[in-house]
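ok here's the first one, seq then struct tokens
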Amino acid sequence: MRCLTLAGALKERGWICHFLCQELKGNINSLIVQSGFDLVVLPDRSPEKAKAAISDLSPEWVIVDHYDLDAEWEKITIPEGVRTLVIDDLANRSHRCDILLDQNLGRGCAEYKSLVPPGSTLLIGPDFALLRSEFSHQRKPSIKRREHAVAEHLLINFGGSDPIDATTKTLMAVSGELAAWLKVTVVMGQSATSLDRVQKLAASIGSQVEVLVQVENMARLMSDADVAIGAAGSTAWERCCLGLPAGLIIIADNQVPVANGLEAAGAAAILADLTRSPDLTGALAFLQRVRADREFVRNLSTRSSALTDGQGANRVADAMDQVGVAKNG
């Protein structure tokens, strides 16, 4: 999704973008095509097959976004002279790149200095978070309505696929608190394996729980919500841009640094880590607190909205333009 966001920003500047992807479980390759981009499906991650596909395209830039790919793969795969942007979150391996992007809070340039070639441009922090333009457009009205700090509408979202069924687990954990005072909107992707289960559970809870599938107005839904419960992935920056107070449930190891950084900044509250424990009592306690403590809700909104303004994709595109000009002399 973040590569689609960056491709959209580049397309607005006249760039032609192609995607090289595998047909992995839960993939969104169809969405790439629906978004108007050319898709090349790779049978595996072997550098030889990727190199052949890249050579056929003769690109000016290659953008790499994969936790298992490193400098060795990039050196073999990307032809000499082709500029490279790497998107990373982990700072745990070397890269051969012109630009490295890590949009996470709490990361510093020093952590990447020894992992990239001298002279590489480092784009570090949520100023560079890759958010679709709909979020920056919705930012002002969303922040404005939060001055009243109410908590009557909960948004639950764990991405499109929700691979560990966090949605069902969260709904079950907080069902006792879903009384008449709290309206709930659940957003899921069509490919989520637990979709039927969530829909049946929502129906059993009552009419105040609505399940929406494959939405195209996520920024508006976030803007309309008073508080959210979700994962600590890329969606965390969407919520921050809109000042949406959030409780975080960690569903993957790579989300731990993001969640810790947001909580340390007072921009979100960690409710549970499902990679380590099934305990979700923190979700219920969070809802009880946001109902009783308006100042807590207001502070979460203010501090989260200060972290990113939704212009990250344009800043990354600007950096690519600048590196291109410098390379071309």
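and now the second one, same deal
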Amino acid sequence: MRILLVSQMYPGPDDPELGIFVRQLEGELLALGHDIDRAVLEGRGGGVLRHLKLARRAWARAGETEPDVVYGHFLFPACASALVAARRAGAPLVATAHGRDVRNIGSIRGVGSATEWVMRNAATTIAVSEFLRRELEAKLPDVSDNIEVIDCGVDLTRFHMRDATVARAQLAWEGEGPFYVHVGTLDERKNVVRLADAFASLGAGQLAFVGDGPLRSQLEGRERVRVVGRVPHEDVGEWIAAADVVCQPSVIEPFGLAILEAMASGRTVVATRIGGPAEFVSPEAGVLVDPLQVDDIASGMRSAATFGSPNTRARETASKHAVNVQARRIAEVLERAAHAASA
């Protein structure tokens, strides 16, 4: 099957972690024997012009490669470009909703109608969580009858169980435990200030923030808190391995890939109960918390630290979401769409 991959997020030399989940799925689809060409954006800058550039690339690649199906990521604007490319190629579109593209419906003028146009003309829309599927049903009820839920999966080879003591020694992370890690942008949605306040109330342990963002200054200088900043994507697994508990009590989390990666690494998690994590964090794998209640976050952190490390039950749960398993499910959707279009 010839697939044209269209995405507004894709790893590039200046931003190697951008849309890494798209590249992982691409790699698994290639391993299944499919031919893939792509029209993608590898950087964050450029404003509206970058999306015009993506539209031109998608249009050109559709004409040159004549794909059997177009596989788009992010309902708008990328999947609008993917739909135009699909029409040029006479191929169906399978569109993917990831989170912000759904949140933008109703908050940015014109996005709702553009997204409805994409979904109405797509063969199938894939949502990465049941939470997102429900959001789409609520916001666009007239076009929500053909949505499948398939998450992007986790790389079980890259994220695996390792000795936390060894990982901490390699990172020169010292002190008395428990050791807590947060991976992600330091912003309001990721709820990092409440997490730091909850940690302070515990009175013991160490907390590391891996990532950067506008709230960094509110985290620096706190007792027993280490603000690592942004690290290369290949080093994220090292910090997860160094943790006893990985925390992501986001205000809202459409899916929660970092939580799934932590579970695959055999680490207990503290995750928000609002959004995707509630669908895959089992009671044996971690604790779900109310992200707006500092006391509840602290209670969850305290409880999670008693689970033991490594947490083999967390690894077992994550294995059900292996990226190769999810890629096979996506391939079935793509093949079904291509077959229906050619019948």
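notes on #2: The chain has a mean pLDDT of 96. The longest helix spans residues 323-342.
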